[in-house]
Amino acid sequence: VLFFGGFILMQISINRYGAGLTGAFAKLGILVPMVASLILWREYPGIPQWLGIGLSLAAIVMTMKSGPGNLRPLLLMVLIVVGCAEFSNKIFEKYGEPAHTSLFLVGAFATAALCSATACLIRRRRVTAPDLLLGCLIGIPNLFSSWFLIAALRDLPAALVFPVFSAGSIILILFGSALFFGERLSSSDRLAVALMLPALILINL
């Protein structure tokens, strides 16, 4: 359900604020499982992670102040919902069996598909061939993203893989949105994203 809700919120946010800011806030969702782990399991971050959290909070405050009416609640909703979805992975990592990983993923994607089908029925919207094609075009990169991440973790240390994965994703989103859609961030938003990049690197060390 969180996976489905996160995608819907990201669509709305991209339409309103662009892919760059939305992608950056989605990546900052990692703050949710970090805080929850601190409260529930006393998993204390190290000095680099605390520095990353501080930079993240500074970037969030800066972004909120630069928005219309000095408030962008939708971006915070993206962060929280995507972060809660990430926390579900943390719960599985903590209490689930590694042998059941495939079942966990099938359950997550099947539930998201059920939510999507329910939304279509409620809105009485037919699913067309272009809808299915677009879904495949979105789903295939997501699949390969997970596959390459797992493959990289087999051969490289997590301290290298996760910072490159997180910060690299934001850089590619910013580059792609500027190149293909002509999106441009304001000077304050650019500074906020510039803070988010080292923040994500530090958090993932």
Describe the structure.
The chain has 205 residues and is mostly helical. It is built from nine helices and no strands. It has helices spanning 2-17, 19-27, 31-41, 47-66, 73-95, 101-122, 129-155, 158-181, 187-203. Helix 4 packs antiparallel against helix 9 (187-203).
Task: Describe this structure in a few short sentences.
The protein has helices spanning 2-17, 19-27, 31-41, 47-66, 73-95, 101-122, 129-155, 158-181, 187-203.
| Total beta-strand segments | 0
Mean pLDDT: 81
Largest sheet: none
Q: What percent of residues adopt helix (DSSP H or I)?
A: over 70%
The SSE string, one letter per element, is HHHHHHHHH
Features:
205 residues, mainly alpha, 9 helices
Topology:
Blueprint: H1 2-17, H2 19-27, H3 31-41, H4 47-66, H5 73-95, H6 101-122, H7 129-155, H8 158-181, H9 187-203
Helix pairs in contact: 1-2, 1-5, 2-5, 2-8, 2-9, 3-5, 4-9, 8-9
